[in-house]
Write a structure and sequence with these properties.
The complex is a heterodimer of chains A (375) and B (343). Chain A folds into 2 domains: 1-262, 3-Layer(aba) Sandwich (Rossmann fold); 264-374, Rossmann fold (3-Layer(aba) Sandwich). Helix content of chain A is 38%, strand content 22%. Chain A is built from 13 helices and 16 strands. Chain A has helices spanning 11-22, 36-45, 59-71, 82-97, 125-130, 146-163, 173-177, 241-256, 259-262, 284-296, 314-323, 337-345, 364-374, and strands spanning 5-10, 26-29, 52-55, 76-80, 102-110, 116-120, 139-141, 166-172, 179-184, 225-227, 265-268, 275-280, 301-306, 308-310, 326-331, 350-355. In chain A, helix 1 (11-22) packs across helix 2 (36-45) and helix 10 (284-296) crosses helix 13. An 8-stranded mixed sheet of chain B has the order 2-1-3-4-6-5-12-7, with helices on both faces. Chain B has a 4-stranded antiparallel sheet with strand order 9-10-8-11, sandwiched between helices. Chain B is α/β, with parallel strands linked by helices and 343 residues long. Chain B contains 12 helices and 12 strands. Chain B has helices at residues 6-13, 27-41, 77-87, 99-105, 107-116, 161-168, 181-193, 207-213, 223-233, 255-265, 296-300, 329-340, and strands spanning 48-52, 68-71, 92-98, 120-126, 172-177, 198-203, 235-237, 246-251, 271-278, 282-289, 305-309, 316-323. In chain B, helix 2 (27-41) packs across helix 7 (181-193) and helix 5 (107-116) packs across helix 6 (161-168). The chains are: A alpha/beta (375), B alpha/beta (343). The A-B interface holds A 25-26, 28, 46-52, 54, 56-58, 60-62, 64-74, 76, 90-91, 94, 217-229, 235-237 and B 15, 17, 45-47, 49, 51, 62-63, 66-73, 76, 79-88, 90-91, 108-109, 112, 333, 336-337, 339-343.
């Protein structure tokens, strides 16, 4: 592990370091570019912390193993990229249904299919939200720097425990593979699992306003029934409409109602802004440059950077729509988040899309041109 | 083996659930053998984790078994179980899977769990089809058999799943049927005690779907015992001495006609003939002879008889095939952590 202080490391290394410091003691993964360095670091460092590194036979087994380990009491993580993330979707749904805390890192690469295996993208953001079948609500984070790979990985673990849910860290091949400064703090704040206090436990139901039940673990006499089938609060399988509505509504609402707590955005020059760029992850970097350049050109431009992409910060973007003339959504896909922004803005401001595919970042110049046109 | 009332086992090991199994299903028998094995070994119930996937077999532990259960996605039970067992190696971890769940969609996890020799006991219930979804062909369905997805007969050849597990490195491998409850219970005990990957294939009856597969034109209530007798007829136990002086006469058309003709030939001989079900040949006439110089050829020449087959032809071998000690995966992982300085 890295000592507290300044280091020059890869984003993927920062992610793995953050995971171990957040308390991760079980990692299962399968080789895939551009996420491999997370596995390499975990293989070397996790055993030193007394944790388990498993290289499984595929990504399906990897996500399955971390869910199994989580129920045995572990803080657990897997890391992958596009094709592996697709394979994991069924079991990600299982983790939602069984309310299993775990962290899934997707160092996004350019698809579909094998696509540009070594190049970055932000194409999987809808997959993060809608990838598994059925109705559920997801928490997904988007780091824009090596430092944030560390910080948001820690946060992903904390949110997973706090809400008893899988959390997606939607990094990308650029952030995973750049080397820049990482400051490792002396101590990170971690959230522990809310465990049953008595000998009785209702593992899938609660009266608590958080709507997050206590989580027991295997081997402690709770005689748990954990199933991906619709179940009663006790865990007993029951397909009746009442229990299905109760379950799905609760696992969605526990996240949606906490949007303010979960949602994290960074505002740059927004106070008097008339044109606001909305971006996240790697594409927020040239967006930042373009906004600064626009300011130097006398344009009242600002940047809203999303560190959490799901749940979508509807309130913040809706407020912006009333205050500004134009919103420009910058992303490395064919224009996905812009759909969400248009839905929320609902005609109250002009919405422009800067969407770049091909495994390359949109340039400061490209974004600046759109800002100038919108201003 | 102490005899305890059934009530003792149901109170201690079974949740108070109505059973979801079809009448006559073999799954209840397997659950019964499993809890008896646990009881005889006095395994603490709080430390037993049963993991299952999707299919009828998955419902053996979930929700019936009164310990920790993890009912997972189709085919993936072993991968989930691997995570739980690695993180808490004190858990007596048992995976229940089926032939579709374990050998088709989950086949990859099966061979890799076997290769790692992780200390998990896997009980694979082989009913030769996908039963929960309506009786489709599975990787175990015999060639030529008719199912919902092979109305003209199965074009594929089946897996020998126990052989597959053994080849992949499982260190305890056995195969039994739901007819062999004592052997199965003993084998589950051995598997639970075994430190490594133990694998038991259990051939099980499915009155609901094997009726069509084996073309058994009987009311459903007669099928369970008929299929169990067929399992007994169509299997032999490795290493067990066998009576060999019998043959099966495969009829050209009607087994009743064949039996009549054969009975006429056997009139003055110390020999018996009866119609039995055989997994390999269907309804056949079994001829047991006590005559030292039995002239079998006379029977094979009969008009209604297609051919005579020997006692072992097309039969399934049962028994314990592999039992060896090898480095176990969670031990190996703990050694690695010790080397890295994590313990």
């Amino acid at each position: 592990m890295l000592n507290p202080g300044r280091h020059l490391v890869l984003g993927n290394v920062a992610c793995a370091e953050g995971a171990i410091r957040a308390g991760c003691r079980f990692f299962a993964g399968y080789p895939i570019t551009p996420a491999n360095e997370i596995s390499h670091y975990m293989a070397a460092e996790l055993p030193k912390a007394g944790g388990f590194f498993l290289q499984m036979e595929d990504e399906i087994a990897s996500i399955a193993a971390i869910i199994g380990a989580s129920w045995a009491g572990a803080k657990a993580m897997t890391a992958t990229s596009g094709p592996g993330y697709s394979l994991m979707q069924e079991n990600i749904g299982y983790a939602h249904m069984t309310e299993t805390p775990c962290v899934v890192v997707n160092v996004q690469r350019s698809g579909p299919s094998t696509g540009q295996a070594t190049l970055p993208s932000q194409q999987d953001i809808y997959q993060a939200k809608y990838g598994s079948h059925g109705d559920y609500e997801v928490i997904a984070l988007s780091p824009w720097s090596v430092q944030e790979m560390f910080e948001l990985t820690v946060r992903a673990f904390n949110l997973a425990e706090r809400f008893r849910t899988p959390v997606m860290l939607m990094a990308d091949g650029m952030i995973g593979h750049i080397k820049e400064k990482l400051v490792v703090p002396e101590k990170v704040d971690t959230v522990g699992r809310r465990r049953p206090t008595g000998s009785e436990c209702v593992p899938f139901g609660t009266d608590d306003p958080s709507m997050v039940p206590e989580m027991p673990r295997f081997g402690e006499g709770f005689r748990l029934l954990v199933t991906g089938s619709t179940h009663r609060p006790s865990g007993v399988r029951d397909y009746t409409p009442k229990y299905h509505q109760m379950k799905v509504n609760r696992i969605r609402e526990k996240i949606l109602k906490a949007e303010n707590e979960i949602s994290d955005t960074v505002k740059v020059d927004l106070e008097d802004a008339e044109v606001v760029v909305i971006s996240f992850g790697a594409s927020a970097r040239p967006s930042y440059g373009a906004v600064k350049e626009a300011r130097s050109q006398g344009i009242k431009a600002g940047l809203l950077r999303l560190k959490t992409i799901w749940p979508f910060p509807e309130g913040k973007i809706s407020d912006l729509a009333d205050d500004v003339d134009a919103l420009i959504v910058v992303e490395m896909n064919v224009g996905k988040m812009v759909q969400e922004v248009r839905r929320v803005v609902c005609g109250r401001a002009n919405v422009f899309s800067v969407s770049k595919i091909g495994g390359v970042l949109p340039s400061v110049y490209e974004i600046n041109q759109v800002i100038r046109r919108a201003a | 083996m102490a005899v305890k009332p059934l009530r003792y086992y149901s109170d201690k090991y079974i949740r108070n659930q109505p059973s979801a199994f079809c009448v006559g299903c073999g799954d209840g028998t397997i659950l019964n053998c499993f809890v008896r094995a646990l009881d005889e070994l006095e395994v603490p119930l709080d430390k037993v984790l049963c993991v299952s996937g999707i299919g009828c077999s998955a419902w053996i532990p979930s929700p019936n078994f009164n310990g920790d259960t993890l009912h997972t996605t189709h085919g993936r039970a072993l991968a989930f179980a691997t995570g739980a067992k690695v993180f808490n190696s004190d858990l007596t971890t048992v995976v229940f899977t089926g032939d579709g769940d374990g050998a088709a969609i989950g086949g990859n996890h099966l061979i890799h769990a076997a290769r790692r020799n992780i200390d998990i006991t896997t009980i694979l219930v082989n009913n030769l089809s996908y039963a929960m979804t309506g009786g489709q062909i599975a990787p175990t369905t015999h060639h030529g058999e008719r199912t919902a997805t092979s109305p003209y007969g199965n074009p594929e050849r089946p897996f020998d799943i126990a052989g597959l597990a053994a080849a992949a490195g499982a260190t305890y491998v056995a195969r039994w049927t739901t007819y062999h409850v004592l052997e199965l219970t003993r084998s589950i005990k051995e598997a639970l005690k075994h430190h490594g990957f133990s694998f038991i294939e259990v051939l099980s009856q499915c009155p609901t779907h094997q009726r069509r597969m084996f073309n058994m034109r009987d009311p459903v209530y007669r099928l369970p015992s008929r299929i169990l007798e067929m399992f007994s007829e169509s299997t032999y136990v490795r290493g067990r001495t066998r009576q060999e002086n019998y043959r099966y006469a495969v009829p050209k058309a009607s087994p009743e006609n064949a039996l009549e003709e054969i009975s006429n030939v056997l009139v003055n001989l110390d020999t018996e003939a009866k119609i039995v079900d055989h997994m390999g040949f269907g309804r056949v006439v079994r001829i047991d002879s006590k005559e030292p110089d039995m002239e079998w050829a006379n029977i094979s020449r009969l008009e209604a008889v297609d051919r005579l087959v020997g006692p072992l032809e097309e039969k399934v071998e049962l028994g314990v095939f592999v039992k060896e000690e090898m480095l176990e995966y969670t031990d190996s992982l703990r050694d690695l952590i010790r080397t890295a300085g994590g313990i």
